[in-house]
Amino acid sequence: MKRAFFFVTCCALALLAGCGEKPQTNAQGVKHDAAPWSGTTANGEQKDGGGTAFTAPGWKVGDKAAWEAQIKTRGQNGQNEYNRMQ
Question: I want to staple 39 with a disulfide (CB 3.0 to 4.6 A). Which of 4, 55, 61, 83 is the partner?
Answer without folding.
Answer: 61
